[in-house]
Amino acid sequence: MANLMDLIKGQLTDSVMDQISGKLGADRQQTDVATDNILATLIEGLAKNTQDEKSAAGLANALEKDHDGSLLDNLHDLIDGRAQQTNPRAANGAGILKHILGGNQSNMVDVISGLSGLGAGKTGNLMTMLAPIVLQMLGKQKRQQNLDTGGLANILAGTLNQTRQTQGGASGGLLKSLLDRNGDGSIVDDVAGMVIGKLFGRK
To answer: To pair with 133 at 20 to 30 A between CA atoms, which of 13, 86, 117, 141?
Structure first.
């Protein structure tokens, strides 16, 4: 099973990361650290939601409709905002974050900002840039591997397990240890007592 984190990081070349840093007006090293934190957190949030049958079905439906992986062909357009004009639903990072993190996005931004040294405003903007990329890659894997809801849950859970085993620091150990207050192995539900919104299951 593919490691979603590795696939996404493979798309985030030096050229892309330099563009992101420039767009943010941020230090490249801080941007890199914040990116690792954000990717791990979003994948964690998605994995959490696939544990619920209705939310998992909603995610699969959203991937089928709006996130086929096509935006990965030109990430520079996505980062510059041009993809928002041609494919607004797929490029709507703010909307994606609302579904994944609900009203608790600001809590995650504060924590990631503290870990990376990147200002909270820039961290929030970076999170908005990265959210569509995560769903585009997940949608691409769904299409290429013909994944059902169980397959989506497996690729997300497998990515989390591999990340924790192979990476230290924010994306595998530090972030989790800081946030997993109840020891259940999930970081997202512990941030300020947050309760994850049902991903794409809201009417």
So the answer is: 117
